[in-house]
Amino acid sequence: MSNDYRLLIVDLSVNPAIYRPVDHWRPHVEALGVPVDVCRPPDGDVPSDLVAYSHAILTGSEASILADTEWIVRACDLTRALEARQVKLLGSCFGHQMLARALSGRAFVRRTPTPEFGWVEVRKTGGGARDPLVDALPDRCHVYTSHFDEVFPLPPDWERVAQTADCSHAVVRRKHGRVWGIQPHPEIGVDEGRALQASYLRTMTECTDILEAAWHADARDDRIAAALVKGFLDA
Question: Can 187 be counted among the known catalytic residues?
Answer without folding.
Answer: yes
